[in-house]
Amino acid sequence: MVRVLVPSGALGLGYDAEALRRGVAAKPDLIAIDGGSTDSGPSYLGRGVSKYSRASTKLEWAGLIEAREAAGCPLVIGTAGTCGTDSTVDWLFEITREVLAEEGLSAKVALLRSEQDPAEIAAAYATNRLSPLPPAPEIDAALIESCTHIVALAGAEQINAALATGADIVIAGRTTDTAIIAALPLARGANPGAAWHGAKIGECGALCATNPQSGVILVDFDETGFTVTPLADGARATPHTVSAHMLYENSDPFLLYEPGGHLDVTGARYTALDDRSVRVEGSEWVPSERYSVKLEGARIAGYQTILLALLRDPRYVAAADDWCSDILEKCSAKVRDRLGTDDFTLELRQIGKNATLGPLETQTGDPVELGVLGLITAPTQARANEIGKLLNPYLLHHPLTPEEEQPTFAFPFSPAEIDRGPIYEFCLNHVLELADPMDAFALETHDV
Q1: Spatial separation of the C-alpha atoms in residues 337 and 252, rounded to whole Å
Q2: Which positions ≥6 away from 199 have C-beta within 8 Å?
Q3: Residue 414 included in any domain
Q4: Which of 240, 251, 333, 377 is the one with CA 20 to 30 A from 290?
Q5: Are residues 285 and 324 in the same domain?
Q6: Residues 32 and 175 in one domain
Q7: What is the number of structural domains in the chain?
Q8: Confidence band (pLDDT; 50, 70, 90) for 211?
Q9: How far apart are CA 184 and CA 279, in angstroms?
Q10: Is residue 417 part of a domain?
């Protein structure tokens, strides 16, 4: 049996300290935690920075290093620093050095790097080693080389290569969420279908349980299946909560694609062992003929300036659609006339009225107050700011009709134009074929 302790869905979200102590007392073979996600958009990958507070990350990471020391097993984090670039691997390694020094501890630390050279990915594209995943955008060599950061998602093979160094702590760049959990069970002979299925169920900690915010779970793997047990007070796993997690962030509730193959849970059976633990058997791993890893890339899509105006006059709130449409038409025409360019986008989003879902919103009823958010995107920050200054008078004084008196609305900030700087877009949704699983990855070790 291989026992994996998962403290939380991601480092930075917090975990139940008492439940973690119970997990350490259960003598796990590995402590595994995810470090990131694409949930918050492309900016973090584009800039190569973490979305989580450094202070919070350090506090939680110190607790896990202490748990690792007590358990006497390796500690692995995947997608370090939210996006898994070399810069965020180094960021967490620096934090690790600080924690070890402050606690008077030593450790062998393995760094698994996932970042790719855009020129090398462009060369792979030229030799037909990239394949699109729907709905992949059209790409060319110039687009690839414009990426500020590209990462490949490591699988179990790369994690096991890092563990094979004898590392106490593995800080991995971008990985699949499941790889850090599945790797050791696979290396020690667990059922491959169970290893990948249990890793999928455990990837977000207690999200597969009745108290999803509690974080800490144990997953036990063996030759025929796996058992999941949440450790916090009030947290229970049920066949429903466990089976439902295959729907989470997955386009197919029965299939999950990973480097080297895919998981098929069509035949999986979920059995409650007691009021807390669930046993799962019958999952199948289907190897692929070729080994490939997914790529994520981000690049600068422009520069943005924003403005926010507040409407409270009932007539303007009720007629906000017409007011915004008129401003967009008139301001866009003025930009073209004054600046001589069409190379910009201008949006007005009504915050408080369908701002999240837009035309898909189904709820009705007029709000009392609206915030109108202007977003200007242009090739340079100076151009975006200039267009923001042209938009400013409209948001401050634009009347519903030419005949009525000039109104005045509220800007909550002065100056009203707020430069957001570069904005980023995801621009790769492709897989890279590899002759050897380590071909796109680099591994180094440090005695700290």
Answers
A1: 50
A2: 177, 178, 179, 180, 181, 182, 185, 219
A3: no
A4: 251
A5: no
A6: yes
A7: 2
A8: confident
A9: 19
A10: no
Residues 187 and 279 in one domain: yes
- Does residue 101 sit in the same domain as residue 147? yes
Amino acid at 223: E
In a shared domain, residues 351 and 324? yes
Q: What pLDDT does 373 receive?
A: 95
302 occurs within a structural domain: no
User: What would the two tokens of residue 187 be?
Assistant: 């290396």
Give phi and psi for 14, each to the nearest 5: 90, 160
Residue 37 confidence (pLDDT): 85
What is the mean pLDDT of the segment spanning 65-77?
98
Considering the domain boundaries, does residue 421 fall inside one? no
Q: Please give the order of strands across the beta sheet that includes 442-447.
A: 269-272, 278-281, 225-230, 217-221, 2-6, 30-36, 75-82, 169-172, 108-113, 442-447
Tokens of 399: 């009347």
Domain with 161, as residue range(s), is: 2-297+429-447
Q: What are the tens digits of pLDDT across the range 257-313? A: 999 999 999 999 999 999 999 999 999 999 999 999 999 999 999 999 999 999 989
pLDDT recorded at residue 207: 81
pLDDT at 433 over 70: yes
